[in-house]
Amino acid sequence: MPFTLAHLSDVHLAPLPTPRITELINKRLTGYVNWRLKRHLVHRREVLDALVADLKAQAPNHIAVTGDIANIALEEEFVRGRKWLQQLGSRNDVSFVPGNHDAYVPQAFRYAPQWAPYMTGDDGAVGFPYVRKRGPLALIGLSTGVSTAPFMATGRLGKAQVEALGPLLDALKTEGLFRVILIHHPPVTQAKSHKRLLDAWALVETIAGHGAELLLHGHDHLRMLNWLDGPAGSHVPAVGVPSASAAPGTSHDAAAYNLYAIDGGPGAWRCELVSRGIGEDGTFAERARTTLAA
Ligand SMILES: [Fe+2]
Ligand SMILES: [Fe+2]
After folding, report:
1. Adjacent-strand bridge partners of 285
2. Which of 127, 157, 230, 281 has a CA between 20 and 30 Å from the CA of residue 143?
């Protein structure tokens, strides 16, 4: 039986809690106005709930969530986010990495312990990169969530994470594991510069030097597949999913999640991707199937 990994992203949990006035004296004000005017029409709780129900019916072995559970990083959003994560699965069965909306304002880091069980490596440490080994997989969690000025949605890995990543990828390859990098911002994107990963070049260089079997991301709220260069002429698929709560017929791709069936072994991995998304009628079904490694 192959190991199945489910990937969803950009939960943007609705409804947004009512903020206190004092919570809006910063970047949250523009975010709050934006939510009230536009985003509440896009990110729908009933869509997210239908996605999670469909995902659970597939009974994956593990679930990866690549950021943006929150919207404007209110304390109450972290409380509700923790409850949502607990309903999704246990801390052992769900791995999370933060996005820019989870780090919307600098004080958000104070609330992050709410979600720490889902960002804890097998060594018991909360930090990035973390490593969690599940079946034939090594899940490598990276954080690009940094607070930025209003209207900015950039991300940054920083020198320490980038420098740790290369040796980690080498060690996990030696162990014969299927290396899956989890990151919120995509390494390759068509998005405008105010939404990009600022040090994407460092990630791309590290993967070119050390390899990985798969990279999963969110942030652009689109179905994406880019092939990154790996060592010795190999290629690494970087796959993005739409927002897990995006209603059909809005500006970006409608809600979907991806299921990866992985088996084989070092040098002969098999990895099949099945994408399940929402249709105009509100029901989830298979929308695409792609073989990434055979
Ligand atoms: Fe997002
Ligand atoms: Fe994002």
Report:
1. 277
2. 230
C-alpha of residue 232 to centroid of ligand 1, in Å: 34
Q: Look-up: residue for tokens 């405008």?
A: 192
Give residues with Cβ within 8 angstroms of 172, minimum separation 6: 131, 138, 140, 179
Tell me which residue of 91, 89, 198 sits closest to 144, measured CA to CA. 198
pLDDT tens column, 116-125: 999 999 999 9
Q: Which residue, among 242, 245, 149, 252, has the nearest Cα to 195 in the 3D structure?
A: 149
Q: Where are the alpha helices (DSSP H) in the chain?
A: 28-34, 40-42, 45-57, 75-88, 159-174, 200-210
Task: Please write the tens of the pLDDT for every residue from 200-222.
Answer: 999 999 999 999 999 999 999 99
Compute, in angstroms, the gap from residue 207 CA to the centroid of ligand 1: 24
**Most distant CA pair in the chain, distance:** 57
Distance CA 206, CA 174 (A): 17
